[in-house]
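JOB MANIFEST
job_type = single_chain_structure
chain_count = 1
residues = 183
[input]
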Amino acid sequence: MAIQNMAMRGKVKGAEWTAVLVLSMLLLGCTGAIRQESARLPTIDQQRFLGTWHIIANIPYFPEKGKVATRVEYVKRSDGRVDDLFYFRSELNGPEHQWSGVAWPLDASGARWKARFIWPFSTEFWVVGIDAGYEVALIATPDAKLAWVYARQPQLDPARYQAALAQLREFGVDTEAMMEIPR
């Protein structure tokens, strides 16, 4: 309404008005898509989700590229948030490094999370699938552009890995971009 009032008073001109309108429609479209996908998320028992997860495969973003033997550890903090510890090596025989972040669930489902490694930047990730034994978890960003296959053990049976990829594809992840992590 405020934008419309500004347009009527001549403060937003033709091309600007069109740009604002298009941007608004795009943002509303993205929000709708995320809400629709959100309805398909599992309910996660946070206590069972905590602990160590080996990253079997991912669609790496720039900080993860070239990392091997990666794993994450989620540790409950006294303030209700979770320490998000990322362990990696630059080469298989090299020393292990650690990055420390913090994560917190966004709702009661336990499937939607935010994580921050460098303040004030944070990112949202979703647990889009988890097996009954909490041995394999599938993680993705809401837009499905990044994804991870987690497992409690450093290796995952090929059949279970293919099933994980199939489930990620159902969520909209381009699994052709997934890279298995060397161990």
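[summary]
The domain at 46-180 is CATH 2.40.128.20 (Lipocalin).
DSSP finds four helices and nine strands in the chain.
exit_status = 0
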